[in-house]
Amino acid sequence: MKYNLYRWSPSEDEIRKARKEIAEHETAIGSLQARIDGLVQQARRIEEQKRNHYDAIAKCRSVLTLANRLPTEVLARIFEIAVQDGWTRGPIAVSQVCSSWREASKTPSVWSYMYIDCDKGNPVGRCNLWLRMARQSLLHITLRTAEQISMLDAIFSLISAHILRWRSFALEASTVQSANYVLSCITTPGPYLKEVSIKVGDSSLALPLPEFAQVQNQLSELKGAFGGALSLRRLTLATDICQSWVGLPQITSLNLQLNDCQLSAARPILASEIVRALSESINLIELSINISRKDKRDFQLEHDDLVTLPELHSLTLSLPIPFMAFIQHIRAPKLQSLFMRCPDDPQGFATESTREAIRRFFDESMPPLKIMELYDVDISQDDFAFCFNFLSSLEELRLHGSEISDGTIRLLDPSIGFLPMLSKLDLRWCGHITGEALEEVVRSRSLASAYGHDISPLNELIVISCSVVNEKQILGIVNYCTCRLKMRDVDDYCLHRGCCDNLRYRNRFRSRVKINPEQAVRIIV
């Protein structure tokens, strides 16, 4: 083959032919593009038709959903629970879903939970709307005070006109002074008022106050506002200092909380002031005191200050370990449930003064406890033995995060005679207890009960994140009692804190052990 080494130039005919061919290809491309555009438009129309069918299907399915088939009163009850849990805009939101939800949302009880923030939006209009929709139903009012007194007065004039229908009243104020102002406006609450909550924060109480200024930081108007509310039974007070706490003689449930203080130079927490508030609520059945372990203030105990609560059945102390010594100031001869909690406290073991206070409480109150829980409150084996000696009626023992040993568990052996009525033992994060000791105690109590001894077997054992208890020992334990590897459903403190990694433990247990049908009914995973 020969190659042309010289530059080639097309002829005029070749140029016309090439241009003609280019034009034909361009025409064909245009025709194809037009077809493509038509097909795209057709596909879009088809997609739109498909979406219409999907929408029609969704509408038809909505007719079949449980939410639309529920009776109106059931839907209304669901909405009421949602609002009660804090969904303040719930009534407006659910009324815009569909006709059946709109009808259910018109139920007056759905609108009976009113949250009024005087500094946001249009609180007067919102208040009027909720009152109009609530009609004659009992009212649960939460009022957040305003910086402007005029706005606060306008709101309070509206809700006070319905004071006879108050079922509960919660006040959130930035200072004690503003809280007292609102309380001073409350007169003659109705017979339906059962619960009152006062939360005061962001005040100037972080620094020590002179004596003449301390009087101004008491909730002095609380008794005047609710002293005549004869049906009032539950009172919650959350303040900056315990000096603000006040009791009422008619209440049976009292919840006292202190806001965190990060200044070590602040005014100390005085046990005498807590005792004073408790002495004003002599008919208490339930008492809860909550002070964060992060609080930097000192705690001063006055050993001569005592308060006797003759009807107290339940006592919950969520306090730093040193503050737990306050229990020695309480006498509760009918106490049935005791919960002592200091979650995640790095200090661990209780101080000598705290341990002595616990022993003194049991020695002088001799409470007929049925339930006792220690959460990150570590005491010695001798302390347990001392307390167990007073707990002949105890039915449930919960030890969470306790550094107890096998020796403490063996105190439950029937030969020793402690806790003869104990039927439930709840152990969590107890890193020193072995499965052998648990299996031994469970077996011995079961056999003693079977042979007619006056001692209750352990019917239920809860073991969560106890590292020295293995699966083989758990399978041995289930021959005598139910072994639970999960938390309770409702009243479990760990469940509300969200700090229990029992799911990982359950999965590990399932992957390593095969459970036969007979054992499965005694292992709750």
From TrEMBL:
Keyword Coiled coil annotated: yes
Coiled-coil boundaries: 15-49
Domain F-box span(s) in chain numbering: 68-116
Taxonomy of the source species: Eukaryota, Fungi, Dikarya, Basidiomycota, Agaricomycotina
InterPro entries linked: F-box-like_dom_sf, F-box_dom, Leu-rich_rpt_Cys-con_subtyp, LRR_dom_sf
Identification of the protein by name: F-box domain-containing protein
Highest taxon in the source lineage: Eukaryota
Keyword terms: Coiled coil
Pfam families: F-box-like
